């Protein structure tokens, strides 16, 4: 009851609060705002002004208007105006690079908040993707992060194909995008489906011109994607990763991609955790232990005792993630 009035007093120019206090008050107001008037106050604070930190604090605060509790969420029309303002800042090449990337982050934070229509969300996604060509590396990452946090229904099949192209080629608009593959991988992990699995697996393979960052990101993204895959696809991905980590020959199936060659230790570690996430998704969907789940369990236990010190703790972490999902009735089969 006392925090909100204190923040509003700090933001009142008549009080003469020093700039650092005003910056902090803006960010705090984003977390505790309850009225449309508070939002409008934040919208006026994003500049452009001579105080770039003030502008950026206002931009961060707009992203912090995100509310998990539906009863506390702001009305769609107001949030749509906030999104439009943030998009304008993101597109404004006269603004500082950091200011623009923060606008992208705030756009992403508001991705799951109410909006007037799905069509507006689709238009936002397309507008963001249209911005990609010619951008600097940090902007590429900011734009793709903002896309990844929009509702999955607002990202069309053609747009996911574009993301797969960036992931596999490392190019945007005919130019090399060093952060593009990693950011595209995470976007696919959040908005993709079964049709995107082969691109992530392929991105984990070592090829000329590809970086280890892209392989690690693809491995992590597969784990993020796991809950939205079918049981059949998850089983095939598990087989691919187990064979890749064991350097075994591929099995015959329709994923169209050979097991990735994981030469980077951190990519191997990410793949171990992703195996657990894939198996955990199976556990959440079925009360019975599938063959894929028991296979991952045995595989992770074996890797906990391997001669690879870098991988052992990740195998232990992955096994803990999997056991955590097990129903109480199966606990006896999942003790160390």
Distance between the termini: 49 Å
Quaternary state reads single chain
Helix content: 55-70%
Number of helices: 16
Main sheet: which strands, in order across? 1-2
Structural description of this entry:
With 336 residues, this protein is mostly helical. The protein contains 16 helices and 2 strands. It has helices at 3-11, 19-32, 36-44, 52-63, 76-91, 97-109, 118-130, 137-148, 157-169, 180-191, 197-203, 212-225, 231-246, 265-285, 291-304, 312-324; strands at residues 171-172, 175-176. It has a two-stranded antiparallel sheet. The longest helix has 21 residues, at 265-285. The N and C termini lie far apart (49 Å).
Main attributes of the structure:
336 residues, mainly alpha, two-stranded antiparallel sheet, 2 strands, 62% helix
Layout of secondary structure:
Elements lengths: L2 H9 L7 H14 L3 H9 L7 H12 L12 H16 L5 H13 L8 H13 L6 H12 L8 H13 L1 E2 L2 E2 L3 H12 L5 H7 L8 H14 L5 H16 L18 H21 L5 H14 L7 H13 L12
Antiparallel strand pairs: 1-2
Describe the structure in brief.
This protein is mostly helical.
């Amino acid at each position: 009851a006392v925090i909100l009035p204190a923040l509003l007093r700090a933001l009142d120019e008549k009080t003469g609060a020093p700039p650092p206090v005003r910056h902090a008050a803006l960010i705090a107001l984003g977390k505790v705002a309850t009225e449309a008037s508070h939002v409008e106050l934040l919208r006026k604070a994003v500049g452009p002004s001579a105080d770039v930190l003030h502008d950026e604090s206002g931009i961060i605060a707009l992203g912090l208007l995100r509310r998990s509790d539906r009863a506390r969420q702001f009305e769609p029309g107001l949030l749509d105006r906030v999104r439009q303002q943030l998009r304008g800042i993101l597109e404004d090449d006269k603004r500082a690079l950091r200011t623009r990337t923060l606008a992208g982050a705030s756009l992403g934070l508001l991705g799951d908040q109410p909006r007037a229509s799905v069509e507006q969300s689709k238009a936002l996604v397309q507008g963001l993707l249209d911005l990609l060509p010619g951008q600097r590396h940090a902007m590429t990452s900011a734009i793709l992060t903002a896309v990844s946090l929009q509702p999955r229904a607002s990202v069309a099949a053609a747009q996911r194909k574009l993301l797969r192209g960036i992931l596999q080629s490392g190019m945007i608009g005919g130019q090399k995008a060093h952060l593009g593959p990693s950011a595209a991988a995470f976007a696919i992990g959040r908005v993709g489906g079964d049709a995107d699995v082969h691109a992530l697996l392929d991105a984990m393979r070592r090829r000329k011109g590809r970086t280890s960052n892209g392989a690690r990101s693809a491995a992590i993204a597969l784990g993020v994607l796991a809950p939205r895959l079918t049981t059949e696809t998850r089983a095939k991905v598990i087989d691919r990763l187990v064979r890749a980590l064991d350097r075994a020959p591929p099995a015959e199936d329709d994923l169209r991609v050979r097991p990735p060659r994981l030469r980077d230790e951190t990519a191997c570690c990410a793949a171990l955790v992703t195996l657990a996430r894939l198996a955990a998704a199976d556990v959440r969907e079925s009360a019975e232990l599938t063959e894929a789940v028991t296979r991952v369990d045995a595989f992770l236990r074996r890797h906990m005792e391997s001669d690879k010190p870098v991988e052992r703790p990740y195998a232990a972490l992955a096994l803990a993630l999997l056991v955590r999902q097990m129903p109480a009735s199966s606990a006896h089969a999942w003790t160390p």
